[in-house]
Structures are given as structure tokens and as C-alpha cells.
Design a protein that fits this description.
Layout (H helix, E strand, L loop, with lengths): L4 E3 L23 H10 L6 H10 L2 E6 L5 H11 L8 E6 L2 H15 L7 E5 L2 E3 L7 E5 H10 L6 E7 L6 H16 L4 E6 L4 H7 L21 E5 L6 E6 L6 H15 L4 E5 L3 H17 L7 E6 L5 H6 L9 E6 L12 E6 L2 E8 L4 E8 L2 H8 L8 E5 L3 H7 L14 H9 L16 H13 L13 H7 L4 H13 L2 H11 L12 H9 L7 H14 L4 H6 L4 H20 L19 E3 L6 E4 L13 E8 L3 E8 L3 H6 L6 H7 L2
Parallel strand pairs: 2-8, 2-9, 3-6, 3-7, 4-6, 7-8, 10-17, 11-13, 11-14, 12-13, 14-17, 19-21
Antiparallel strand pairs: 1-10, 4-5, 15-16, 18-19, 20-21
The protein binds adenosine-5'-triphosphate.
The site of adenosine-5'-triphosphate has 21 residues, from helix 3.
Enzyme class: hydrolase
GO molecular function, one term: ATP binding
Catalytic activity: ATP + H2O = ADP + phosphate + H(+)
């Protein structure tokens, strides 16, 4: 395309291309067509072997190229072979919600059934399944973990497929440890661990350690407890990889110019760009749109769409809609489109080589989202978003040498770089008391573990013996939120303000209730001021919610007030779910009236634990108010450590709420 780019050493492969390079490009029109497509996928040749291995082995590890058909086909093979007979369910987990929804709809389409009937999905706060009817269920690994609280042996499932296991999310790791335990109690349960980029050997070793029961010589009943490994050879279509000749100084700019260059020089086909987060994605959308217009072509046919988890569902769905004739879609995404997703029109992938990753420091108790280099496994997954329905090209914004010599093979498992509070409470609720002795696929650090135990103790979730308290600990574990927020909900029941607290908890569960991208920052700030409460962001959320209800849940009202309508609809939905959970666990639903207090301060704050210097985020309604004592929901790190979603408090509330944790004298000595 230009001298800037160098083709990778990997030779382009011959494409098994009977229909002119576009095997399944246009949408399939009928069932017969879909059947033909299914049979062309590499995994189809392995159908019998897969079914045989699953029949005979407790655990089967399946490694196959991206796009070879693992996610969409294997659950269907299992169903066809009878694994969903007699009311049993085949589960397939994904690390991300978007992937769950999109593969579930694809499989429902392939099977010619309505989504939510034979094929369904469950993600947090959304259950699209029909008990007794659903045979194949896609779900996030986090949701499957939560299901274990009510059904510890996951008895309704005959086969559980842990897909994209290379991602090693916290929930995947906990699940792997727990499923290994369950297998000893339920030898009839079958596990499939699948990915395009997993180290099959270490996974197989994990399932083969002495703790699994080996089948004694001569035993005929039951599966072989040693795991089987199957490698699915072959892939969809060829993807030519290109690297930059020299390292790029600014991946955002490089991504923008690569998109424009592709648009100028390459044949039609959509482009998928991987950047890191909402900020750089919004910036890229703007730059590409502006530069495209500056080139003087009024309608060059580019449709630029962002994709990240905080985006409302309707906007996320736009990326899946067919690209109109004569147009070229450019989807600029975080790594939520990195695994499992098929975007039909995508021919070109542009990989920045970076993603936002969570890094937790247990000493300071600060969890940062940091832009960091991706692993080879991620790079391969990104490349694999092309070549699924026709040949493609992948432009890597790093050199081939960097890829070969410096990129790590796999990322660090999330459990080794995260705050462990939610993980510890879940394990405790499942009766795993010796958490350090748990059979982890990768052990978490003991500092993070101690810190999590300390937080849970401070919340009154754990007692002096580190056991879940009754009823508080068990109640908090039942609420599908961060334990700090769950504690807030629980306490609000006693304080007579649970209706308000549930609204706040629902609002904190979504990324933002404000729109971004319309008008100027000044206009947005002014709109926020209409709702600002002196106590801070949390109480301001209540004002927005109240206004929304008073408007009759109107989208025009949202538009006028810079409030995101889709986000508010989500708040209503989550709120309903939380109310039901609250009722189930005995929280009294009650509303309250409120008072206001606020005082001034110089803008710099210190955390009580760790004395870290932190500041109020400019998006907060308290940004210029600076009350003396504040409580924050989360910290983000850019040029400074910023507190997001902040509320003004009286320090005596801390000693009142957690006298076992906060000492009055210590707090007094911190006032400066
Ligand atoms: N929504 C879709 N539209 C068109 N084709 C699709 C769609 N989803 C899947 N396919 C086709 O099915 C193939 C297999 O997809 P599947 O997700 O099962 O592969 P996979 O092996 O699980 O890939 P990955 O490892 O990337 O998740 C794709 O390569 C594509 O040809």
C-alpha cells in the first residue's frame, strides 16, 4: 500500500475459494445456505472426534484458529448428539457481554430458532433464556459463577464450554478451579476448554494434577479423568499481515492515517481498528471524519462508528448492521471486539498494539487502568477478526521484530493484577474458606489477598475467623454488585433510604448517564449543574433520575438535558432487578427526604488508608466545591489520581458505620 508498510514473513496461504473469494459475504438467504456454510468451517471435519472425546473424557481442550467454528458450532454438535436431552443444558461462557449476545444470536439464526427459546443467553442484569426450553445457553463466566451460589454443582448443565480461555479473566480462573472440584463430585459433567491462542499443555497439566480422580485400570464406567487435547487444523480465509517498517511515535495518529490510506488505496470492505478506550476512540472518530472531509470529497462513503462497553446498546448494535452499498464502515473499538465476534463486512484490521489493562497495587489499594502493550495472543485474536467470511489484511502498528522478540506470548492473568474483593466474597459464599489453598490456575499475590480480606472485614462481611458473617456477609454476597455498593444497599434498608440507594447503585453500575460527543464541554457542564446537589455526584444522580421520571421517561427530556436516554433505560432495568434482589434478601424498600451540607477545601485530598494524594475528577459536580471530607466510588489515573463519583460526608459517619475499622482519634489527627 505504501513504503510505510512491510508484509509479514508469514506466506499468504492459498485460499479454498470456490466462489471467487467471497464465500459467505452476502447474508445467507436460507437454511440450506447456512447448512452449507456450517459444513465448510474447519471444525466440521472434527465433529466426530470432538463428540468422541467429549463422550470419553471429563475435560477436552480444543485449540483451533480464530474463525474455525469453535464457538458457534461445538454447542450445536453437542445438542445434535443429545447432550441437551432430558432438560439438560449446554453452557458456553465468554469473557465479554457483547460476545455472549452476538454469538447467541448467530447460533439462534443458524438453528432457525427465536433467540431466548432453544438458544438463549444470560449476562448480568439480562436473562434471555426460557427454563425448560433453552438447550444451548451462552453466558459470561461471571454469571456462571454467580449461578453456583444457588446450584453449587451446576446440576442443570451437561457440558460447560469455557471459551476464549486464553483471556484468563478472574472469573475464568475461579471457574476453572471450581469446575475441577465439581468434576470430582459429578463425573458425568463434561468440560470443554477452548481458544485459538491457549497454551494447551499448561491447561491440560492443570486438569491433570493429583487432585483429579484418575480412572483406575479396567474401570469401565465414567469418563477418563485425564484431559484430552484436540488441535483443529485449518482456518477460514487468508489474512495478510503487514507491519510498520519503523516504530510509530503516536499509535492514534498512525491508526487514523492507516484508515485513510486503506480507504484511498484498497478495494471496498469494512475496517476494524483496535485502540484502547473511549477517549482515544472518540478522538479517532473525530479525526478520521474531519480529515476525510478535509480531503474535499463530500461523500467519500466512510461511516465511522465507535465501539466500547460504555456505549448504549443501540449504538453498539450499529456495528453489526449490514454496510450500505457503496459505503465503507470503520469500526473503532476497544478489545471488546477482540474475541468471538464476527463483523461480516470486515476485510481490514488495524491493530494499535495497545489495550487498557487493569493493574492493582495492594499496598496503595489503587487500581489503575493503564494503556499497556498487548500480548501475541491478543494480536492474533485481533488479526482473526478478519478472514472470517472472505480474505483480509491486518495492519499492525508495530514492527515485526517487536512482535517476534518483545511481545509476551500471553497476558498476565487478571487475577494477578486485580483487586480481589469481589473474588474473595464469591469464594467464601461458595464455602471455599481456605482461599490461599484453593487450586488456582495462577496464584494471586498474598498482599492482594490480605488486602481483600481486610476490606471485607471492614465491611462486616467477614468475622474474626475470616468466615462469612450471618446474615450480613451472606446477604452481601447475593447482591451482584461490588461488595462496597452491596453493603451500601444493605445498610440503606436499616436507614430508611433503600429506594434512593438502589437508584444510586443502578447508576453506578453503568459507565455514565451523560452523553458525550454532543455540543461543547461547557454546555455539558452547564447541563450537569441543573442537577448538581451540594452533597455530590451520588445525590445528583437522584436528581437526574427524578427529573427523568417526572418527564414521563422522555427521550426529548434526555436530549435537552445531555442525559443519555439509553443509559437511563438501563438504569430503570437494573434498578428493577436490584429491587427484586433487595426484597428477596429482606431489605425493606423505603424512600427518604434529604438534607444538605457542604464546606470548602483546597482541592487536594489524602486517602485515609495509605495517605495517597488524590483529586476530585473534573466531571464531578463537586469539582469546584471541594468539601472537606469526601467518599469516592472509583479512582482513575491520568496526570493525577482522580476520584470519580464523589459524595460529601461527615467523618463521624465512618466511625459510626465501621467502628471496628475506623478509629475516631486517627481520623481527627488527619484533619489538616
Ligand atoms: N454473525 C455472523 N455472520 C456471518 N458469519 C458468521 C457470523 N458468526 C460466525 N460466522 C461464521 O462462522 C465462522 C465461525 O465463527 P466462530 O465464532 O464459531 O469461530 P471461532 O473458532 O469460535 O472463532 P474465535 O476463536 O475467533 O472466537 C466465522 O469465521 C464466520 O465464517
Amino acid at each position: 500500500m505504501s513504503q510505510f508498510w512491510k508484509p509479514g514473513a508469514e506466506k499468504p496461504r492459498l485460499v479454498d475459494d470456490e466462489e471467487g473469494g467471497v464465500l459467505f459475504f452476502s447474508s445467507p438467504s436460507g437454511y440450506a445456505n447456512i447448512e452449507r456454510q456450517r459444513q465448510r468451517l474447519p471444525v466440521y471435519k472434527y465433529r466426530t472426534s470432538i463428540l468422541y472425546l467429549v463422550e470419553t473424557h471429563a475435560t477436552t481442550i480444543i485449540v483451533g484458529e480464530t474463525g474455525s467454528g469453535k464457538t458457534t458450532q461445538i454447542p450445536q454438535y453437542l445438542k445434535e448428539a443429545g447432550w441437551a436431552d432430558g432438560g439438560r443444558v449446554i453452557a458456553c461462557t465468554q469473557p465479554r457481554r457483547l460476545a455472549v449476545q452476538s454469538v447467541a444470536s448467530r447460533v439462534a439464526e443458524e438453528m432457525g430458532v427465536k433467540l431466548g427459546e432453544e438458544v438463549g443467553y444470560t449476562i448480568r442484569f439480562e436473562d434471555v433464556t426460557n427454563t425448560g426450553v433453552t438447550m444451548i445457553k451462552f453466558l459470561t463466566d461471571g454469571v456462571l459463577l454467580r449461578e453456583m451460589m444457588n446450584d453449587p454443582l451446576l446440576t442443570k448443565y451437561s457440558v460447560i464450554m469455557i471459551d476464549e480461555a486464553h483471556e484468563r479473566s478472574i472469573s475464568t480462573d475461579i471457574l476453572l478451579g471450581l469446575l475441577k472440584k465439581i468434576q470430582r463430585r459429578r463425573p458425568e459433567l463434561r468440560l470443554i476448554i477452548s481458544s485459538a491462542t491457549i497454551q494447551a499443555k499448561s491447561m491440560s497439566d492443570f486438569f491433570q494434577t493429583s487432585k483429579t480422580r484418575r480412572r483406575p485400570e479396567g474401570e469401565e464406567l465414567g469418563p477418563n479423568m485425564e484431559s484430552a487435547v484436540l488441535s483443529v487444523e485449518g482456518r477460514g480465509f487468508n489474512v495478510q499481515i503487514h507491519y510498520v517498517e519503523e516504530p510509530v511515535p503516536d499509535y492514534l495518529r498512525a491508526a487514523v492515517s492507516t484508515v485513510l490510506l486503506i480507504h484511498e488505496k484498497e478495494p471496498m470492505g469494512d475496517i476494524l481498528v483496535f485502540l484502547t478506550g473511549q477517549d482515544d476512540i472518540d478522538a479517532a472518530v473525530q479525526l478520521i471524519t474531519e480529515e476525510d472531509q478535509n480531503r474535499g470529497r463530500k461523500s467519500s462513503g466512510l461511516m465511522v462508528l465507535p465501539l466500547y462497553s460504555g456505549l448504549p446498546r443501540s449504538e453498539q448494535e450499529l456495528v453489526f448492521t449490514p454496510t450500505p452499498r457503496g459505503k465503507r464502515k470503520v469500526v473503532i473499538s476497544t478489545n471488546i471486539a477482540e474475541t468471538s465476534i464476527t463483523l461480516e463486512g470486515v476485510v481490514y484490521v488495524v491493530d494499535s498494539g495497545f489495550s487498557k489493562q487493569r493493574f492493582y497495587n495492594p499496598i496503595t489499594d489503587i487500581e489503575n487502568l493503564v494503556v499497556a502493550p498487548i500480548s501475541k495472543a491478543s494480536a492474533r485474536q485481533r488479526t482473526g477478526r478478519a478472514g472470517r467470511v472472505r480474505p483480509g489484511k491486518c495492519y499492525r502498528l508495530y514492527t515485526e521484530e517487536y512482535f517476534a522478540k518483545e511481545m509476551s506470548a500471553e497476558g498476565i492473568p487478571e487475577i494477578q493484577r486485580s483487586n480481589l474483593v469481589p473474588c474473595v466474597i464469591q469464594l467464601k459464599a461458595l464455602g471455599i474458606d481456605n482461599i490461599l489453598g484453593f487450586d488456582w490456575p495462577a496464584s494471586p499475590s498474598s498482599e492482594a489477598m490480605v488486602r481483600a480480606l481486610e476490606v471485607l472485614y471492614s465491611l462486616g462481611v467477614l468475622d474474626d475467623d475470616a468466615k462469612l458473617t450471618s446474615p450480613t456477609g451472606f446477604q452481601i454476597a447475593e447482591i451482584p454488585l461490588d461488595p462496597m455498593i452491596s453493603k451500601m444497599m444493605l445498610a440503606s434498608g436499616q436507614l430508611g433510604c433503600s429506594e434512593e440507594m438502589i437508584t444510586i447503585a443502578a447508576t453506578l453500575s453503568i459507565q455514565s448517564i451523560w452523553v458525550s460527543g454532543w455540543g461543547s464541554q461547557k454546555e455539558l457542564d452547564e447541563a450537569k449543574l441543573n442537577f448538581a446537589a451540594a452533597e455530590g455526584d451520588h445525590v445528583s444522580f437522584l436528581n437526574v433520575y427524578k427529573g427523568f421520571l417526572q418527564s414521563g421517561k422522555s427521550s426529548q427530556w434526555c436530549h435537552k438535558n445531555f442525559v443519555n436516554y439509553q443509559a437511563m433505560k438501563k438504569v430503570l432495568e437494573i434498578r428493577e432487578q436490584l429491587r427484586r434482589t433487595a426484597q428477596r434478601i429482606g431489605i425493606v424498600l423505603k424512600s427518604c427526604e434529604r438534607d444538605t451540607v457542604a464546606s470548602s477545601h483546597d482541592g487536594k485530598y489524602k486517602t485515609i488508608r495509605g495517605s495517597q494524594e488524590v483529586y476530585i475528577h473534573p466531571s464531578s459536580v463537586l469539582f469546584r466545591v471541594n468539601p472537606k471530607w469526601v467518599l469516592y466510588h472509583s479512582l482513575v489515573s491520568t496526570d493525577k489520581q482522580y476520584m470519580r463519583n464523589v459524595i460529601s460526608i461527615d467523618p463521624s459517619w465512618l466511625t459510626e458505620a465501621a467502628p471496628h475499622f475506623y478509629q475516631h482519634q486517627r481520623l481527627k489527627s488527619m484533619v489538616h
